[in-house]
Amino acid sequence: MPRLCPFLVVALIVLGLGSSWAHQVEGGNLQLIAELEDEYLLYDVSAETSLVPPLAEITAESESFPSKESIAESLTAYFAEHCPVRIDGIEVAPVLEEIDFQKLENQVNLGEVTDFVMSYFLMKYPVKTKPQTVDMRWGIYLPDRVKDLVPQVPDPTGHEPQMVDTIFYTFGELDLVVFSPKEPQYIWHSPKPVLSVDAEARLQAAMAAVSAASQRFFPLGWVLAGLMLGVTVLLGLLGKRGVALACAGVAVALGAAHGALKIPLPHEPERLTAEAALQRFQDLHQNIYRAFDYDSDEAIYDTLAQSVSGELLEEIYSDVYKSLVMKEDGGAVCRVKQLEYLDCLPSPLNDGETGFAFDCQWRVHGLVQHWGHTHERVNEYAARYVLSQVDDWWRITDVEVTREKRLDAQSLEVVN
User: Fold this and answer.
1) What is residue 120's three-state secondary structure?
2) Helices and strands (H, E) in the chain, number of each type
3) In 10 A of CB 163, how many CB atoms?
4) Which pLDDT tens digit goes with each residue over 281-303?
């Protein structure tokens, strides 16, 4: 199915799928992904047209689909009334950014195999400044009759057929939001700076400092030009005008070439205490996961190169990429929302080597989308890493994963 927004195709580490689908409607065909940035709140909506009243007349029998311009007024008015958004206490009017339609034949829709039309659209709520609170109310649900399409047995997850599981993407972090007819409201409050944001800021500052130190030069061109000018003046006083003019020309040439005539000044490599090394390692480790926020190989490799040495690039990229798409489960993907460090102990390397080894144990918390529903997933890992200096920059230069296991997100017990 088509996607309109690039961030939707970005995926991170796949952690596994859920074990129970008992209370989920086959062919629900209603999904919402929300993204909050400094300048907007974006709703990416996938919905069978009969679920959205302004689109209800668009059916599989329709000879053509309406344009964005012809549907924008009625669709935005419907969202303003039934899916209102208040940002910092002010109600914000939605703007239809894009819309697309796709006719599906012999597909499951609300438990029946039939022909129908899916709509895909982006609804944007503009933001003037970085918000402190966002009040979202959702008013589009599957019809009441879907309650008869699922077994009437207790569901330990509390899932109801009409719930809309929503991925909420906020400033690099992910959360799972659930709307239902009984609880249609969710209020987001701006948290303190999250670790991943702090980590990125620390890495950028450290890289800037290393870059500044490595670019310290002694301006040899200007010094030589000054000496030649002194010689020129002296020769002029002695009456040797021809030689003086030649020296003046050399001085001008040296001055013009000052950019190339530089002697790099020696600088001390960055030194880290054990405490600082632990912070740097965790920042670099998180940066590995953050690299896969990008959707181009070039951007992913560039970000990974900040964290790992060249010898590890292919290995790390390959291992993570293979876990992006769960082929055995129809291509379900997962986004990482949090790294939780359970244990991470630094120890200096032996034999006089500069660097640290880390015996690290951590959990990856993520959200998996599959068939229009979203589930939380947790994987736990243990590995031994080595942190060393490469080209004046601290990088992860070796890794050996010693344990990997999937946990139940509710009980955090091992899932076989």
Assistant:
1) strand
2) 7, 16
3) 22
4) 998 998 888 777 666 788 888 88
- pLDDT, tens digit, 9 for 90 and up, residues 269-280: 668 888 889 999
Measured over the CA atoms of residue 262, residue 265, residue 266 and residue 267, the dihedral's sign is negative
Q: Which stretch of DSSP H or E encloses residue 107?
A: strand 95-109
* β-bridge pairing 185-189 and 217-219: unpaired
Percent of the chain at pLDDT > 90 equals: 29
CA angle 184, 40, 51 (to 5 degrees): 40
Please, are residues 378 and 371 in contact by the beta-carbon 8 Å criterion?
no
Do 324 and 343 form a contact (C-beta atoms < 8 A)?
no
Question: From CA 178, how far away is CA 183, in angstroms rounded?
Answer: 8
Residue type, 289: Y
197 pLDDT band, cuts 50/70/90, is low
* Token pair recorded at residue 16: 């596994």
Measured distance CA(284)–CA(275) in Å, rounded:
14
Is there a contact between 123 and 53 (Cβ–Cβ < 8 Å)?
no
E-assigned strand segments in 127-250 = 133-137, 164-170, 173-179, 185-189, 217-219
Q: Which phi and psi angles does 151 have, rounded to 5°?
A: -60, 135
DSSP conformation letters of 223-270: HHHHHHHHHHHHHHHTT-HHHHHHHHHHHHHHHHTTTT-EEEPP-PPP
Mean pLDDT over 135-160 rounds to 75
Paired tokens of 97:
């950014």
- The span from the CA of 363 to the CA of 345, in Å, is 16
Amino acid (one-letter) located at 181: P
Rounded CA gap, 11 and 401, in Å? 22
Segment 329-354, tens digit of pLDDT? 455 556 677 788 999 988 888 776 78
- Candidates 270, 404, 291, 284; CA nearest to 346 is 284
Centroid of chain to Cα 28: 27
Q: Please say whether the beta carbons of 194 and 173 come within 8 A.
A: yes
What's the predicted TM-score (pTM) here? 0.50
Q: What is the number of other CB atoms lying within 10 angstroms of the CB of residue 267? A: 13
Where residue 186 falls (left for φ over 0; alpha for ψ -120 to 50; beta otherwise) is: beta
DSSP label at residue 413: P
